[in-house]
Design goal:
By secondary structure, the chain is α+β, with helices and mostly antiparallel strands. About 50% of the residues lie in helices and about 15% in strands. It is built from eight helices and six strands.
Length: about 210
């Protein structure tokens, strides 16, 4: 999820004349939040002078700032979240963050100056406080692709609650995977399963299964 933020850093060549005016018009409150978070990710995570431990610490801070992990977890686990104890919820949130860090932090090393264009936000018809912000990402090589961010207001700002790449919802994908597992095996087994995969490095990009 968070790795897509590295593409939210505007390259200087991407905005000129009418394009820059269009960017100013398209940037709204939610879009501005994404832009700021993306720019922060580039500054903090692509710094070659910091240690890997410091890079991971910064990544975790950005993840906490940008994503509503509790809301995502509630959706992903559904009724199983409501049945879980406070201790189980805390353990799941911790191991879920570990999995995200292992999966996406290495991708920041591959940042090569991608640019983006923020589109106009639209409100969810079913939940008026939820907004979708489309972002068209243009890599240095290859075709542009679209990522839609679902956000909701939180703490006088916004929090990301889902990411849709080419129309595929990450939250729904995790709900199918984690929800089915915990329904069959229970919350403790899911936590144990995720911890084991993290320990094996199974979420790392080259080893992801």
């Amino acid at each position: 999820m968070l790795a897509a933020l590295v593409a939210l850093h505007p390259g200087q060549s991407a905005w000129a004349g009418a394009e820059q005016d269009a960017r100013a018009e398209a940037t709204n409150n939610a879009g501005a939040f994404l832009q700021e978070l993306g720019e922060r990710a580039v500054v903090d995570l692509t710094d070659t002078e910091i240690s890997e431990a410091e890079r991971e610490s910064r990544f975790r801070a950005l993840f906490t700032k940008g994503f509503d992990t509790a809301a995502i977890s509630r959706f992903v686990l559904g009724a199983q979240w409501r049945k879980a104890t406070d201790a189980q919820r805390k353990e799941f949130l911790a191991v879920f963050e570990d999995a995200v860090v292992q999966r996406f932090l290495p991708m920041f090393a591959e940042y090569s100056g991608e640019t983006f264009a923020i589109g106009k936000e639209r409100h969810d018809k079913g939940k008026s406080d939820h907004v979708f912000v489309p972002v068209m990402i243009t890599p240095i090589e290859g075709e542009p692709f679209r990522v839609d961010w679902r956000l909701r207001p939180a703490d006088s700002s916004y929090k990301i609650i889902d990411v849709l790449a080419e129309g595929v919802s990450l939250a729904l994908t995790l709900r199918q995977e984690y929800g089915a597992f915990v329904k069959r095996n229970g919350m403790d087994k899911l936590i144990e399963h995720l911890r084991r995969k993290v320990a094996m490095g199974a979420f790392a990009p080259k080893q992801a299964q």
